[in-house]
Amino acid sequence: MTQSPLPELAEILTHARVVTLPMVTRFRGITVREAALFEGPEGWTEFSPFVEYDDAEAANWLRAAIDFGWRAAPAPLRERIPVNATIPGVPAGQVAEVLARFPGCRTAKVKVAAGDQTLADDVARVRATREALGPEGRVRIDANAGWTVDEAEHALHALAEFDLEYAEQPCASVEELAEIRRRTAYMGIPIAADESVRRASDPLAVAAAGAADLLVIKAQPLGGIHRALAIVQQAGLPVVVSSALDTSIGLSMGAHLAASIPELEFDCGLGTASLLAADVTLEPLIADAGSIAVRRVQPDAALLGRYAAPPARRDWWMARVARAYTVLERELAL
Ligand SMILES: O=C(O)CCC(=O)c1ccccc1C(=O)O
Ligand SMILES: [Mg+2]
C-alpha cells in the first residue's frame, strides 16, 4: 500500500474543534456523538472513532481524516448518492416517525438482535418497516454480530416473509458468516459483512473466504477513501458505503467514497445525519428525495460554539489524536 506523508501533528491540531452532538434516539447504546473536526488544504475532515476503541483502531480513523483533509478525493462518478433510512432498535410503534426523518428513502435498514430486544420485538419492527415502505420498498436488517449461527437461522426464518434485501453481520466471525450463509442459502437472503470488514486485521478475508455476498464499506475505519477504494477493487463483491454515525463532515467523506465506486447497486447507509438532533453545518447532508449530495461540508462557527465539547472532553480528544498520530508515525517508519 502506498503511503502518503503525514502532515505535522501541530498542523492537524491548529483548527481542530471537538463537538458533542445530541442524538434523536439512542443508537448503538449512545445518546450523544462526539467528533473531532480538522481543516486541511482540501477542506474540513472528521476523526470520530467510538470512545471505547483503542489507539491502534483509532489510528485508521485518523489516517482517514488526514486522507480526506490533505489529499484530493478521486474524481466523482456521480453527483448524488441514494441512501437508506436507518431504524435503531425502537419499538415497532415508533418506526413510522423514524422513517419520516428520511425523506424519499425507498430503502430502510432495521437494527435487530440488540441486547434488550427479543426476536418478537425484532419481527414487529421489521414488519412495521415493511408495512410503511410497501411492497416496492427495500428492507434490510443489521444484527451487529448479535446472533449465534443457530439464533441467526431461527431469526432469518422468522423474518424471511418480509422479503429482506440482505442480512448484515448476523454473526460475529467469518466462519460463522460462512456457515449461516450455507444454511440459509435456500431462503435467498444475501449476507453482508460489516464488522468482519471494518474491524478485521484483514478486511479482505471475508471476501476471500466466500463468507459474504456483499460488503459494507466505511471510509473512516478503513483508513480513508483511497484505502477503502482499493479494498472495494480487490474484494470483487458488490458494496454498500455506510457511515459510522458521522457528522455531516464525515458523511461528506463517505459520499465522496461512494461517488468514486463504479458500480453502486445498493442504496448507501449515509443518511444518518437524520439520527442527529444537531449538526455542525447549516447545510447538513440530510436525504432529499432519497439521496444526499456529493460535496464538501463547511462547518458553521455558531454551531461549532454551541456544540463545543466540554474542556475535559476536548482535552481527551486532543490527547487521543496525538496517540493515534504516534501509531501512524510508527507504521510509516517500518
Ligand atoms: O448503515 C446505516 O444505515 C447507518 C450506519 C450504521 O448502521 C452504523 C453506524 C454506526 C456504527 C455502526 C453501524 C453499523 O452499520 O453497524
Ligand atoms: Mg452494520
Q: What's the topology here?
A:
Layout: H1 9-14, E1 17-27, E2 30-40, E3 43-47, H2 55-70, E4 80-82, E5 85-87, H3 95-99, E6 107-111, H4 119-133, E7 138-142, H5 149-159, E8 164-168, H6 174-184, E9 191-193, H7 195-198, H8 205-208, E10 214-217, H9 225-235, E11 239-241, H10 248-259, E12 291-293, H11 301-306, H12 311-333
Parallel strand pairs: 5-6, 6-7, 7-8, 8-9, 9-10, 10-11
Antiparallel strand pairs: 1-2, 2-3, 4-12
Please give a structural write-up.
It comes from Microterricola viridarii. Pfam families: Enolase_like_N (PF18374), MR_MLE_C (PF13378). It catalyses: (1R,6R)-6-hydroxy-2-succinyl-cyclohexa-2,4-diene-1-carboxylate = 2-succinylbenzoate + H2O. It is a single chain. The strands form 3 sheets. A 7-stranded parallel sheet has the order 5-6-7-8-9-10-11. It has 12 helices and 12 strands. Helix 2 (55-70) packs across helix 12 (311-333), helix 5 packs parallel to helix 6 and helix 9 (225-235) packs parallel to helix 10. 37% of the residues lie in helices and 18% in strands. The protein has 2 domains: 9-73 and 301-333, Enolase-like, domain 1, CATH 3.30.390; 80-293, Enolase-like C-terminal domain (TIM Barrel, Alpha-Beta Barrel). The model has no long low-confidence stretch (mean pLDDT 96). Magnesium ion is lined by residues 142, 144, 168-169, 194, 216.
